[in-house]
């Protein structure tokens, strides 16, 4: 026990695991995200087996993202009103049934594109219920001086599980058995996550000011007004909308096409590409976790790493071998992991806890508003100009837009108005 504590103290990113509830949350998240990585490979291969064209995968992307845009704002308000654990469990249960049904139908040879779209739509709804509560519960579990390490660990787990271990396992399961078996394994991971959340003791805390909004819609309006008044939040969210409109659809839809059709790869090859991205993200998150602090100019660093991640998408338009695609994924996902740690930590420190669920929900909703459209235009664009040209233009546009927004007035206000200094944590004495 003493040796474990000493190791945890030396490795900064492991310190939040001393907090019981965070350890349960982290364990459930790790297993669930391995399942998410399995899903990435399984759904791509399943859809391409049914209909081998980018447009089919684009439709699946629309079905996944659309309910998150529509439902996540209401979910954020619920996260600030009710027990966040209960909403997370509900999100896991919804996804368990959606993916489990997908697996059973796949094994029975009964899947068609319309059925896949319907089940993925339900899966996306479960994601919308889960996400705001998950993002806003961490500051209620860990002390503020461990927030950077906690977010870094979360970002280390996400790529390690979702884009490294998960895709590798998914590739093996699809190759050795079938996509249906992979879906069923994914479903089991949501059941495990539910168990871990049930073991947590954290409960909803009432508004410390003792004030309750007059209505559910009033609470949503309060969150909207707060974000509208906070210029740096609005600018970052709008920047995300535009850059993700350019990049998300091409990344999700065309990278599997490149690996399968251009590079002659198998499901395991796609797993290796996603896995290399996971390694890059793990490296970036591990750096933050050991450092334990944000950079001196966190918003500037965030925008620069964000732009690098967007520009990286263009690299997939030039690759000629699987290892080159792995190198592009390594750099791109590492940059994205860096920006996410900075962004989530800044929001958690600068936004009042009673508004966190709504702000994270607005962040997700506004940032991803363009994602369904991104999927919708990716298929026709790729068929018109080719998938390589689509990826190149997507990366150039996404990166250029991100750099441009960095220079919009107010985009980096917290670096200049003293609010970051006021939000610095006070480290408790040992």
Range of strand content? under 5%
Query: For the residues shown, what is the average pLDDT?
Result: 78
Could you say which structural class the secondary elements and strand pairing correspond to? mainly alpha
Question: Helical percent range?
Answer: over 70%
The tally of strands reads 0
Radius of gyration: 21 Å
CATH architecture assignment? Up-down Bundle
Helix-strand topology string? HHHHHHHHHHHHHHHH
CATH topology category name: Growth Hormone, Chain: A
Gross morphology: globular
- Report the CATH C-level class: Mainly Alpha
Number of domains: 1
Oligomeric grouping of the chains: single chain
Account of the protein in words:
- The chain is mostly helical and 430 residues long.
- The protein is built from 16 helices and no strands.
- The chain has one domain (8-200, 216-422): Growth Hormone, Chain: A (Up-down Bundle).
- Helix 9 runs antiparallel to helix 10 (267-291).
- The radius of gyration is 21 Å and the shape is globular.
